[in-house]
Amino acid sequence: MVSILCDLYPSSLGKWDQRAIPPGYAQLAYDPVLALTIGVRLNIRQILPVALYEVCCRIGLDKIVHAIELEVNYQSKCIVGYAKLVEARRTALTYLTREEDQDECETTAACDGERLRWLSLDIARDSEELDPLDDSNSESWDAFGACSVCRTMAKERWVASRHKLWNDLPRIFDLGTWNELLGEDKPAAS
User: Fold this and answer.
1) Superkingdom of the source (predicted)?
2) Residue 138 above 90 pLDDT?
3) 56-65, 66-75, 131-140, 158-167: which has the minimum mean pLDDT?
C-alpha cells in the first residue's frame, strides 16, 4: 500500500507527470482525502505535500472548510495552502507575458495576440478546478502560434514556474522541504 501511495502521490515532478492509477486498483485509491489521512496516520511524510495539493485542487476550498473530515491541523494547512496555490497559479501565468526588453520577437502584435488567446484558454480551463502544476501545455507547444523566440521563452518560463512550485510545495503546506520529508537532510555524523 505504501508503494502505491508513493506512486500516486510522488515526491518528484517527473513521477508526478507520469502518475497513473495502477492496474487492478479502484479509483478510490486516488482519493486525496483518504491518502492524506493514511499518510498522516502511518507517518508516510513524503506523500503529504502532494496529497494536500490534491485535496486543495480536487476537493476545493468550500468542501475543505465545510464538508470533508480532516484533522484540524491538516484542514488549516489546506486552507492556507489553497490561497498560496491560487497565487502560484497567477504567478505561473506570467509565462504568457512578454519581457519589456525582449527585442528578438519576430512579430510583436501577432505574438501578443497569441498570448492573449492562450491566456483566455487557460483561464477557461482553470475555471473548473485549481491546478497550477497542470502539464497540459507540454503536448501543445506547437499550437502556440507565437514566433519561435516567444514560444521558446514562454515554454522556458512555464517549465521554470512548475519546477519552482514543485520545490515549494512542502513549504506551502508548512511541512519543511522535500529533503527533510525524504530524510535526506540528516546532519553529518560527528
Assistant:
1) Eukaryota
2) no
3) 131-140
- Could you tell me if 115 and 93 are in contact, meaning their C-beta atoms sit under 8 angstroms apart? no
Highest average pLDDT, of 37-51, 53-67, 121-135, comes from 37-51
pTM of the full predicted structure? 0.87
Question: Can you give the pLDDT at residue 69?
Answer: 83
With 0-12 CB in 10 A as exposed, 13-18 as middle and 19+ as buried, what is 19? middle
Q: Of 166, 170, 79, 179, which Cα lies nearest the Cα of 131?
A: 166
Sequence-distant (≥ 6) Cβ neighbours of residue 144 within 8 angstroms: 114, 118, 151, 154, 155
CA separation for the pair 124, 183 (Å, rounded): 40
Angle at 125 between CA 4 and CA 151, to 5 degrees: 95
Confidence of residue 25 (pLDDT cuts 50, 70, 90): low
Distance CA 24, CA 83 (A): 36
- How many Å is the Cα radius of gyration of the chain? 19
Which amino acid makes up residue 19? R
